[in-house]
Backbone:
């Protein structure tokens, strides 16, 4: 229900000062450049292009905030791990996103998106380490499940869930999704909608 209602773009923040002042529960979408963050937000909200999607990795440079039905906030984070990104951009990403993730009191969960075909890469592992150390609750969402065989998706899900056992801030189950076929989208919607009403942090 929540996701089929009003969805408004609020603002794009390039620094901490630009982050909107709101106490609504918030969900963040993090992941490597091109993993499918903006596409997933479009699919979840049923909008074709509320979150801009790109063929050029590194397109989303600011944190884009959306508000669902005046009930929940969504934050689309700039992608990381793009090898060709200038060093100064990488530093900017790290500072802005780390400060946001560690300091956002209203953040209920971070969805860390990982490509189903590749699994966690070094940059994903660094982000998971940071989230575990800062006790920021996160869930792994595998993207682009349409690109590989269903069996391989299941396998990747199991491998990731096994790795997560030793990670204190990780939600134990992994969700496989595709913005193309809609796989996992309604499941993810209900998972996130439940966080909008509950006050628990994990
Ligand atoms: N086949 C397939 N392609 C997808 C899927 N999700 C995203 N893509 C494609 O992957 C590319 C990147 O998608 P984006 O949603 O822009 O990725 P992003 O993570 O927001 O990228 P940045 O903003 O650069 O960090 C686009 O060409 C999308 O069409 C999916 O589920 N299946
Ligand atoms: Mg994007």
Residues:
């Amino acid at each position: 229900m929540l996701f089929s209602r009003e969805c408004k773009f609020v603002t794009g923040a390039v620094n901490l000062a630009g982050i909107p002042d709101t106490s609504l529960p918030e969900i963040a979408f993090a992941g490597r450049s091109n993993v499918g963050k903006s596409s997933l937000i479009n699919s979840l909200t049923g909008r074709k292009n509320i979150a801009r999607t790109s063929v050029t990795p590194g397109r989303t440079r600011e944190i884009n905030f959306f508000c669902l039905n005046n009930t929940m906030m969504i934050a689309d984070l700039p992608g990381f791990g793009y090898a060709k990104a200038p060093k100064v951009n990488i530093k900017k990403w790290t500072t802005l996103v780390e400060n946001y993730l560690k300091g956002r009191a209203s953040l209920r969960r971070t969805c860390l998106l990982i490509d189903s075909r590749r699994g966690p890469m070094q940059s994903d592992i660094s982000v998971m380490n940071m989230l575990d150390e800062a006790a920021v609750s996160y869930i792994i969402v595998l993207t682009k499940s349409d690109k590989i065989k269903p069996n391989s998706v299941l396998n990747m899900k199991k491998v990731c869930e096994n790795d997560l056992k030793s990670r204190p801030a990780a939600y134990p189950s992994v969700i496989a999704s595709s913005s193309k076929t809609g796989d996992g989208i309604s499941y993810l919607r209900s998972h996130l909608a439940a966080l909008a009403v509950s006050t628990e942090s994990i």
